[in-house]
Design goal:
heterodimer, A: 123 residues, mainly alpha, 75% helix, B: 328 residues, alpha+beta, two-stranded antiparallel sheet, 11 helices, 41% helix
Chain lengths: 123, 328
C-alpha cells in the first residue's frame, strides 16, 4: 500500500495551482495550452475517482451478456467481436442498456459538459 | 522572408501591385500552410490568402484532392455563383513558394462557437440552414465535365474504408461495431446520380458574415459521390457545437436545409441523409482514434492531440442517440 496523499489529492492540488496561480500570469497560445493541461488533470482526477466502481459494474454486465469471464478489456473485445459477427445486436436483451450505461460512464470522465451527455443525464 | 517571394510573385500577375505586407501564418501542419497577407496597390491594399505545401511536400495524403484540384474547384464554384473566394493565382515552380495558390481574402468569421453565440450573427443564424441548402445545391450542380480529376467513392466503398481504418487502430469499441453493422444493413447502394461532393462542408469551414454564408472553404476532401453525403455531414452532432436541437450546424432544422436545397431545383433523400449522418459521426470518431495513434507513435506528442483521443466517446453517445434512442 502506498502512502498518502492519494493520487486524486495530488492531481487536484496541481490542477488547482495551475488554475489559480499560473493562469493569471499567462496569455496567448501558452494560455490555451495551459487550459488543455488543466483539463487533462481534471479528466485524470475524474477517472481516478470513478473508474474502479464503474469498471466493476461494466464487467458484471458484460459477464451476464456474454456468459464468460475476463478482464474489462478482454470482455469488451469479445463483445465487439460478437457484434461484428452479428451474434449480438440491439434485439439482444440487455445490449442497449449495457452500451448506454457504459457510454454514460465514459462521458462522465471524458466530457461531462458535452451537450448530448447533459441531455441524456436528465432522462 | 516569405514577403520577398510573395512580392516577386504578385508583381507578375497583379497589375499595379507594388509589394506585399503583413504576411502571417494562420495555420499549418507539416505538409500544408495557410498565410494571410496584403498586396500593396495604388488603389488600396488587397487582402489575400496563400494556401501552399512548402517545398519538398509535393505528395498529398491519399484522401486529399490536392491543392491544384482545390484551386480549380474554388474557381469553378466562384464562377458558378457558389460563395467562394476568387482564386487569383496558381503558384508556379519558379516562384520558390512551393505548390499551391493565392486567393482573395473574404471578410467574416469561421470560428463556429462565435458564429453560434455572437450578437453580430444574430440575424444571419435563423437563415443559415436554408441558405446552406441552396449553397449545397449550387455546389452539386457544378458541371462534371469541367471538374478536375477526383477520387470516386460509393457508400459501400466508404464503409469498407472506415472499417479498415478502425480495425487498424486495434481499438475494440462495441458502439463502433454496432454502427458498422447498421451502416452495412442500411447501405443505400449506388446513388441515382453522382456529383461533386465537397467532403468537409460544415460549420467551421464556412466564412459567415452578418448576411450569411460568404465563402465555402477547405475543399481538400472533395470527391465524386452521393450528393446526400454533404447534407448528412453538415448535420453531424459534432458540428452543432452544443446547439444539439438544431441539426444543421447548430443553425436550424433539416426541413429548412431540405427546403433550401429543393428550392434551388434539386431533390433530397432524407433516408440517405440519415445514412450519411451516421457514417459521418462514425468517421469523426475514427478520426479521433487516429489522432490518439499519432500522439502515441508519431512526432506530434502534444496534449491537444492526446485529448482528441478522449473525444471519441462523444461520437459514441451520438451514435447511440441515432441508433438506439432512449424513451423520452
Amino acid at each position: 500500500m502506498q502512502d498518502e496523499p492519494t493520487p486524486i489529492e495530488l492531481t487536484t492540488a496541481v490542477a488547482d495551482f495551475l488554475r489559480n496561480d499560473i493562469t493569471p500570469l499567462i496569455s496567448g497560445h501558452q494560455a490555451f495550452k495551459l487550459r488543455v493541461a488543466i483539463n487533462i488533470l481534471d479528466l485524470v482526477t475524474r477517472q481516478l475517482t470513478q473508474e474502479e466502481g464503474r469498471d466493476a459494474k461494466e464487467v458484471e454486465r458484460l459477464r451476464a451478456l456474454l456468459g464468460m469471464d475476463g478482464s474489462v478489456s478482454d470482455l469488451n473485445a469479445a463483445l465487439a467481436e460478437r457484434i461484428a459477427k452479428g451474434e449480438v445486436d440491439l434485439a439482444t436483451p440487455g445490449l442497449a442498456e449495457h452500451l448506454w450505461a457504459t457510454t454514460m460512464d465514459k462521458l462522465a470522465v471524458d466530457q461531462p459538459n458535452y451537450a448530448s451527455y447533459k441531455r441524456e443525464l436528465g432522462r | 522572408m516569405i514577403e520577398a517571394e510573395l512580392s516577386r510573385s504578385v508583381a507578375r500577375w497583379c497589375e499595379g501591385a507594388t509589394g506585399v505586407t503583413g504576411a502571417a501564418k494562420l495555420s499549418g501542419g507539416a505538409s500544408q500552410e495557410t498565410w494571410r497577407f496584403d498586396i500593396e496597390h495604388p488603389d488600396g491594399p488587397i487582402g489575400a490568402i496563400l494556401r501552399r505545401s512548402p517545398k519538398g511536400y509535393g505528395a498529398a495524403p491519399t484522401r486529399a484532392a490536392g491543392l491544384a484540384a482545390e484551386a480549380q474547384l474554388m474557381q469553378l464554384a466562384y464562377e458558378a455563383g457558389v460563395p467562394s473566394p476568387r482564386v487569383m493565382h496558381v503558384l508556379t515552380p519558379d516562384e520558390d513558394l512551393g505548390t499551391g495558390f493565392i486567393m482573395q481574402r473574404v471578410d467574416g468569421e469561421t470560428i463556429a462557437r462565435k458564429i453560434l453565440r455572437d450578437e453580430e450573427f444574430a440575424t444571419a443564424r435563423p437563415l443559415l440552414a436554408r441558405q446552406i441548402g441552396g449553397v449545397l445545391a449550387g455546389l452539386h450542380r457544378l458541371q462534371r465535365d469541367k471538374l478536375p480529376e477526383l477520387r470516386s467513392r460509393s457508400a459501400t466503398q466508404e464503409i469498407g474504408e472506415f472499417e479498415r481504418d478502425y480495425r487498424s487502430l486495434n481499438w475494440p469499441k462495441p458502439v463502433f461495431e454496432l454502427a458498422l453493422r447498421w451502416l452495412r444493413d442500411h447501405d443505400p447502394g449506388p446513388s441515382a446520380e453522382t456529383t461533386l461532393v465537397h467532403g468537409d462542408f460544415r460549420n467551421g469551414n464556412l466564412i459567415i458574415g452578418a448576411d450569411g454564408v460568404r465563402a465555402v472553404l477547405d475543399w481538400e476532401l472533395a470527391h465524386l459521390g452521393d450528393p446526400m453525403e454533404d447534407l448528412g455531414w453538415v448535420c453531424v452532432n459534432s458540428w452543432r457545437f452544443g446547439e444539439i436541437d438544431k441539426p444543421v450546424g447548430g443553425f436550424g432544422t433539416r426541413e429548412e436545409l431540405f427546403a433550401g436545397y429543393e428550392a434551388a431545383g434539386r431533390k433530397c433523400d432524407p433516408a440517405r441523409v440519415k445514412f450519411w449522418e451516421v457514417m459521418g459521426t462514425l468517421r469523426w470518431g475514427i478520426m479521433c482514434g487516429g489522432m490518439m495513434q499519432r500522439f502515441r507513435e508519431g512526432p506530434d506528442h502534444s496534449m491537444e492531440r492526446a485529448m482528441i483521443g478522449r473525444r471519441a466517446s462523444e461520437t459514441e453517445i451520438d451514435l447511440l442517440r441515432l441508433l438506439a434512442p432512449r424513451g423520452r
